[in-house]
Amino acid sequence: MVSLFLTASTCPWTRKSIRQSSDYDLDHLLPLAVYPVNELWNLVPVDREFNQRIKRDRVPFDQRLREAEPWLAEAYRGYDRSCSLRQAVQEDAALRFSAIQHQPDFAAALGQQAVEFSNGVAAARYVMRF
């Protein structure tokens, strides 16, 4: 599944280019320990070493999330290259973020909503942040 959208991806945390399957992890933006739901919008390709050594089960601080927003949108645009992934992410997003269904730039709107939702969940649950 992941190789379908990794033609030109960038880690939202390190800004490293992700070109090979050995370079990335498919990370939960909101860790499963915090948000135990596997919605496709919550899964993004990230630098493997950074994910395993630094991010782990934490959520980025607000500023880091906001800086990552364009790279999250880039990942969502990558999903759009596959009909089945496009449909799945749109269905997941529609259930979680009903206001973005008819946005002209779905990926950008989803990136913004993912950042806001992640910040809200992290604040409400006193999640460790980085």
Q: What's the story with the biggest beta sheet?
A: 2 strands, antiparallel
Using only C-alpha atoms, the radius of gyration works out to 14 Å
Uncertain ranges: 1-6
Choose one word for the global shape.
globular
Neighbour order of strands in the largest sheet: 1-2
**Strand composition percent:** 5-15%
Number of distinct beta strands: 4
What is the average per-residue confidence, as pLDDT, rounded to a whole number?
92
Distance N terminus to C terminus? 28 Å
Q: What order do the helices and strands follow?
A: EEEEHHHH
* Share of helix, binned: 40-55%
What does this structure look like?
The chain has 130 residues and is mainly α. The protein has one domain. It is 45% helix and 11% strand. The strands form 2 sheets. Strands 1-2 form a two-stranded antiparallel ribbon. Helix 2 crosses helix 4 (106-124). The radius of gyration is 14 Å and the shape is globular. The termini are far apart. Residues 1-6 have low confidence and may be disordered.
